[in-house]
Amino acid sequence: MNAGSFAFWMRIASLFLLRSRRTTVVLSLMVLLSVAILIFLSSLAVGINDAMVKNSVTLYSGHVAGFDLAADLAPERLEVEGVDAVVKRIENRGLLQRNDNIEPVMLVASDPAEEIGNTALWRKITGGRYPQNGNAEILLSEYLSERLGLDIGDQVQFRRDLNSPAAAFRVTGIYRTGIEKLDRSLAFCPPAILPDDESRWSAAIFLDDGIEAEAIVRQYRERFGSAAQFKSWQQLMPDLRQLIDLNYVSMSIVTFIVFGLVAVGVSSAFVIFILKNLREYGIVKSMGVTPFEIGLLIALEVGLMNLVACIGGVALGVVASHAMSAIGIDLTAFTSHNRYFAVSGVVIPRLTPYSLWVPPAVAFGFGLAASIWPTMLVVRRRTAEILRGI
Amino acid sequence: MIRVQGLGKAYRSGRRQVEALRGVECSVEQGTALAVVGKSGSGKTTLLNCIGGLERPDSGSVHCLGINIHELSRRALSMFQREHLGFVFQFGNLLSYLTVFENIEFPLALNGISRRERDLRVGALLESVDLIDSARALPGELSGGEVQRISFARAVAHRPQILLADEPTASLDSQTAHDLVRLMLDVVREERATLIVTTHDPVVIELADSIMHLRDGKIVDETRATVL
Predict the structure, then answer these.
(1) A385 to chain B: which residues are within 8 Å by CB?
(2) For B110, which of A287, A292, A383 is closest by C-beta distance?
(3) CA–CA dist A36, A253 (Å, integer)
(4) Are B82 and A289 within 8 A, CB to CB?
(5) CB–CB of B2/B62 below 8 Å?
């Protein structure tokens, strides 16, 4: 086959599609909408996973958490490429006491501006406000405030153990996240209020979008060795990791089922499309068109139609995903009691290479596969037999 | 030259076996026109289809231009058809999605004729069938007579050595039928092609060089006229 004859068959296939306008449009629309819907659905599923991760890491831990970091390790050294912010925290294990009530606590001393700028815990304040720099102020969980009988404005004492000297704090805020680990025995105060043990510190490290936490952890390990401990959110929250994996598995199953149904629909439509025009293939066959050329003509007709429909479907899917990601989809009504949506129930659909190429590739592949049987039918049946059917 | 030997073909019609052709033998000289006549169901179309390679006979052979066409591979048969054969069907069988010009151009492009030559040849054929103004029309916009004329123009576009016409005038009024037959015979004689035409039309029968009567799949009479 030379380029000239390929161009000839391309022209014939294009004319066939253009002049069978109604059928072409209906069939193309079916493929286009299927591809667009699948792209949007898969971007929505990715967006839901993103939202769960974001909700979980922005509340407190960050995408990567650093523990037991040496005092001489400056936070700036952790700001490698892909890192958006590093929040330095000094964790003080001790007791909170009011009158005779004593509760164990982890009092986190950190810069309020950095916490508010990078974490979302302040959004879960149910009463009062976040402590301010330079003031002996404390933010407590609702659980601790109830256990100690504290309210906004009350005084509370912190001591490292029963024999240590006490430091007094005024309660300025009470929060509740709905996550037991954070709601039990965590409290926040500004830095340099306590006679801190400055020898070690912890870090909440926030990454730019699309950066893999595991990759940053590997970088840190190479750079700082085993002296410092870093854990990705996947290590810190194995339950969330499992849930996301489960989401991907169920999404793949659903996608496969949807693809299967769409593919059967698309394939059937193509088979009908070709059989409806069997007469035309009989006519070209009578003029001496070879079996290979018949196959090529049908493949070009199906392929061209699918290609245009898939391009349109991808464009529509991308536009829909972008439009929805610009405004977000508020699912708060369905997520308000879900701990993985503790901060926000707004889902931002996100396109991935997978969600972009799989739907059109599958639609295209199934379309071409669907043309095999009618092609064989046209090739194998005697021309007279096809023409007798007219 | 076309030589048909012992041609047999049977169809299954429900539980019944219908013998469409029973040991048909005939030969047609190059440059002559043979009219095959007979009642409906006598086997005329089956004979034409077997000669043109559109149908495979159960027995016998068909030699066209010295080649036993039913021994050719699918591809070789297609190549033979595109180069040496032209078909005119009862209802035209134009490709509905191609214009008149593109329909006539199709066999020329298939045979690798250059664009310039194609344009000249199609133009000339459209003039000869008096449809130059309909070049850009689609088949659906044409009358029955016009469709048949275009079908004929397409069949002879690539100057085939064998032209097979299956009741080309059946759906036409007598004047249009007469014009088409005259045109067909003129072109065939000009090009020294062999024409086999199945028909009931007395005009065609009158103008053909020889006539073959078929009944129940058998030749019952053969009349030779003058060789061109």
Answers:
(1) 55
(2) A287
(3) 18
(4) yes
(5) yes
Count Cα neighbours of B199 within 13 Å in the Cβ-side half-sphere: 25
- Total domains in chain A come to 2
ipTM comes to 0.90
- Within 8 A of A287 by CB-CB distance, chain B residues are 81-82, 87, 106-107, 110
- The tokens describing A145, both together, are 């405030």
pTM exceeds 0.80 for this model: no
pLDDT digits (tens, 9 = 90+) for A371-386: 888 888 888 888 888 8
CA B185 to chain centre: 12
Phi, psi of B135 (to 5 degrees): -55, -35
Burial of A318 (0-12, 13-18, 19+ CB in 10 A): middle
Which of A34-43, A163-172, A197-206 is the least confident region? A197-206
Among the partner residues B53, B97, B106, nearest to A19 by beta-carbon distance: B97
Superfamily of domain B2-92+161-223: P-loop containing nucleotide triphosphate hydrolases (3.40.50.300)
Helix (H, G, I), strand (E, B) or coil at B23: strand
Test A291 with B82 for CB contact under 8 angstroms.
no
Could you tell me which chain B residue has the CA closest to the CA of A385?
B55
Among the partner-chain residues A279, A379, A383, the one whose CB lies closest to the CB of B54 is: A383
CB-CB contact of A281 with A294 (8 Å): yes
| pLDDT tier, A278 (very low <50, low <70, confident <90, very high otherwise) | confident
What residue in A sits closest to B155 (Cα-Cα)?
A: A287
* B119 to chain A, closest Cα gap in Å: 15
Would residue A218 count as lying in a domain?
no
- Looking at the fold, whether A183 and A267 belong to one and the same domain comes out as no
Burial (CB count within 10 angstroms: exposed 0-12, middle 13-18, buried 19+), residue A163: exposed
Structure tokens at A86: 């590093």
The tokens 């018949």 sit on which residue?
A294
Q: What residues make up the domain containing A72?
A: 64-210
Contact B158, B117 (CB under 8 A): no
Count of positions (residues) in chain A = 390
Within 8 A of A284 by CB-CB distance, chain B residues are 95, 106
CB < 8 Å to B49, chain A: 383-384
